Amino acid sequence: MANTMARSFLQAVSSSEEVAPPLRVVQMEGLAVLKIIKHCNEFSPALVTGQLLGLDVGSVLEVTNCFPFPIREEDEEIEADGANYQLEMMRCLREVNVDNNTIGWYQSTLLGSFQTVELIETFMNYQENIRRCVCIIYDPSRSSQGALALKALKLTDSFMDLHRKNNFTGEKLREKKLSWVDIFEEIPIKISNSALISAFMTELEPESPVAQCDYDRLKLSTAPYMERNLEFLIDCMEDLSSEQNKFQYYYRSLSRQQAQQQAWLQKRRVENMARKAAGEEPLPEEDPSNSIFKPIPEPSHLDSYLITNQISNYCNQINGVAGQNFSRLYIMKALHEN
Amino acid sequence: VWSQCTCRNRCHNSGTIIGPHGPAYRTTITGFTAGWLNYHAEGARVGSRSPENPNRPPRSDLMAVLQFFPPSSPIVSARLHPVVLFNICDCYVRRPDQADRVIGTLLGSVSDGVVEIKNSYAVPHNESADQVALDVEYHRNMYLSHLKVNPKEVLVGWFSTGFGVSGGSSLIHDFYVKELKDSVKDLKDAQNSVPPLHLTVDTGFRNGEASIKAYVSVNLSLGDRPLAAQFQEIPLDLRMIEAERVGFDILKTTVVDKLPNDLEGMEASMERLYALIDDIYKYVDDVVEGRAALDNDIGRFLADALASVPKISPAAFDKVFNDKIQDNLALVYLSSLIRAQLGVAEKLNTAAQIL
């Protein structure tokens, strides 16, 4: 009894450092949403990025404002310019009382092909400075179908630990039970608006009950979008099969090396027996200088995980659009019969 | 033959002059500007009477000739993007305690006399009863930063919250006129004759409604003495198509718990379509039974809408329909197959090694 009491007291004292509650929801202001949409649409199909500003409150990450980054040329001296631009913008925004806290970044994507190594690296960079950061992905091509394609992404903690140790071998992954779904974690988005702007919007809402988003959703021609999706999917499948070939090659060479080692060991043993019979010193059973004992590096699983993520994304999108197509086709059929 | 040019400093052409000439006598009537005519032998100004015109004014260099040009501002109307409105409201909510209004710069583009206001940012300012101070450095820095991102969005005017135009506003407006001229010199743009726009957003809802108005300033002067600047309202287009795309349900309420996904959005659109069709049914029934007045225009619209449904024979339609359904089913099957493949591949890749 006393033991458990003492332990819990110690635990309470030691855990006085704050444990951040897990991030459950990202709350965005309508202003930030509209700014992101405007910036991404203006420059589509080029991919653009920008910074998110806001507050970190408990289990909610609030995004209250954002600003776009200029498109960076591939020039060395403009690196400093980019940092200057960021500092300048943050300073100016602080003067007008905008939250000066960076909580992540946003980027536009083309048909959902955003799971790349650069994304992970950017995440790790941000994570060093900010305790909690999030990446918002906006897809302008899917939004032209009528859905608001905003996603909030975060790396899972287990994946980040693994990445820090830079260890992606099969054993480690099996140990941590980390599969490809566990790399990114999608967080639901909530949208909030101030009372003033909601009053304005209520005033300015047009009279007609049908809006532009309905026109977009009820469009029958989705073929170009599906075609592009399928093209990307096929490319990804090719990448996946090449990754699989890499693994197969690795396993084959590993097993070949094993066989070579066994053969060599056998020969050594025979030799040793002969030597013992002749009364000489037995040779060591290992020879690290021999090349067949050199361990072959295992190819990293990271790429294949990322590709798998992308493929599943494309599949989801195809499913979504196909579902919409079914509804639209049945509407057409009903209309035609009447 | 006219006498020699009497304007002292500005005339660099002392050749023969054929008409009244000089810096004076520029009279203005509201909305119109009377141009003063400058006849030099070489070039006549646009709109002025040519030397061959027999109706030349009588000789006197004291006469003021009134000619009616169209309004000097080529701005006809303005269009506001919802981002700007959101930004202005956000700045207003975040303003420092001692300020009771917020002012800032508007960015956008001009084409064919229509100004599109696409972006904005607030500028810190101090206002007291008799003077207004604006942070010019801040304005210029933000302008340069914004230009780095999007060089096509240029200065088109300024905004302020509050109802109506106050005395301080005209001073600020003059500042922006000068800024516009300076910025245009940098950009070497051809739209240097476009004066800046002034937007007021009434955040106090003084009239019980949202009044967002756009103004252009016209200078009233008598002779050489400027009298006043008149702010004329120009039509403002507040149709927010981008906001419609996002969906007013999301932007209207104070909290939206979940963004609708594909199918939920589809469902909402279908419900709206159904409601529209219901309304039309009821209207047509009412008209047929004489309960509602007949309107030819609506009837014609309805006829057009119905005629736009293509006429295909049932067999052909069935074939097209079935083909599409089969295509979509094939895609769904393909994507499920790929997912199964992914599961298998992953198991293979991380399977225990052969040892």
Mean pLDDT of chain A: 78
Low-confidence stretches of chain B: 1-54, 56-72
Report the strand count of chain B: 13
Percentage of β-strand residues of chain B = 15-25%
Family (chain A): Belongs to the eIF-3 subunit H family.
Subcellular location (chain A): Cytoplasm
Protein name (chain A): Eukaryotic translation initiation factor 3 subunit H
GO molecular function (chain A): metallopeptidase activity; translation initiation factor activity
Task: Provide a brief overview of the structure.
The complex is a heterodimer of chains A (338) and B (355). Helix content of chain A is 55%, strand content 14%. Chain A is of the alpha/beta class.
Explain what the structure shows:
The complex is a heterodimer of chains A (338) and B (355). By secondary structure, chain A is an alpha/beta fold. In chain A, 55% of the residues lie in helices and 14% in strands. Chain A has an 8-stranded mixed β-sheet. In chain A, helix 10 (223-278) packs antiparallel against helix 11 (302-337). With 355 residues, chain B is α/β, with parallel strands linked by helices. Chain B is extended, with a radius of gyration of 32 Å. Chain B starts with 27 loop residues before the first strand and ends in a 6-residue tail after the last helix. The relative contact order of chain B is 0.08. Mean pLDDT of chain B is 71; it is low at 1-54 and 56-72. Chains A and B meet through helix 2, helix 3, helix 7, strand 8 and helix 8 of A and helix 1, strand 5, helix 2, helix 4 and helix 5 of B. Strand 8 (189-192) of chain A pairs antiparallel with strand 13 (255-256) of chain B.
